């Protein structure tokens, strides 16, 4: 297999593994998928004017979160409020250019929070149609997430004449 | 000025200029800001398994658009339905790693469509709070957009205890 094929396979595997870590509620594993400046050989004690490797994350409907502190805290918060989550990924597209990879995909999400009465049962399950753009960076430890941006799809994707603008 | 500072300034200028081209409704200029595989020295007649430099775009509430054809058609459509648009960018953050740059920003948008009666007046102006993640790639012709993902902010960004999860 040649190098471009291999890159695409590795990036797609990293993307899938990231969502699996979310499904498992494995905070440690989720944290490991996020890039650190030291993954890039950037000295973290020095203030880098280019903020190389500084991560950002947008959850559906949320403002931008910047830096590992904010981003990882958001995942801890989401995990604390989610008892069950499953991602069915469709329309996965990978574009690799040098040491950066862009993945776009549709996250068909099924999730449920803790039962309202604190009992054994799950809260009501909710389905969500979300699209994501994930930017990965090649590191000695594999492909790591530099940015995740997810947003709700509010409009019909199919239309007879294919000309309608979503709102 | 050292190289990282210069990169950040150039990326920020490219990001600003892209939004100005949108404000001006200048379709040609908007098109020029989008990366082509040939900007990266990729032969477009050869099928590249890594789809290097293949662009993607998500407008607020829309599904993912992939490739220059779909992306540029969406801008033509939006421009045809928008008589007036202004972007007030805030919270601009740039992270440059090698030849790739990530820009996150808040797009405070004010826009209006054509008058409903086809008259001289603007349609009603609408304000929108949108956050964007823009991925730029360094090319011999300057920094070009590889990906744009914009999404509506549906929740409060400030909260007294800073602990609330947006929906």
Architecture overview:
With 167 residues, chain A is an alpha+beta fold. Chain A is 25% helix and 38% strand. Chain A contains 3 helices and 6 strands. Chain A has helices at 3-23, 27-33, 67-80, and strands at 56-58, 65-66, 84-97, 100-114, 122-139, 142-152. In chain A, a hairpin with a 6-residue loop joins β1 (56-58) and β2. In chain A, α1 (3-23) runs antiparallel to α2. The longest helix of chain A has 21 residues, at 3-23. The first copy, chain A, is globular. The N and C termini of chain A lie far apart (43 Å). At the A-B interface, α1, β3, β4, β5 and β6 of A face α1, β3, β4, β5 and β6 of B.
Measured as a percent range, the helix fraction of chain A is 25-40%
Question: Biggest interface in this structure?
Answer: A-B, 57 and 56 residues
Task: From the 3D structure, determine the CATH topology of chain A.
Answer: Nuclear Transport Factor 2, Chain: A
Query: How many H/I helical runs of chain A?
Result: 3
Radius of gyration of chain A: 18 Å
Domain SnoaL-like (chains A, B): 11-153
Protein name (chains A, B): SnoaL-like domain-containing protein
Pfam families (chains A, B): SnoaL_3
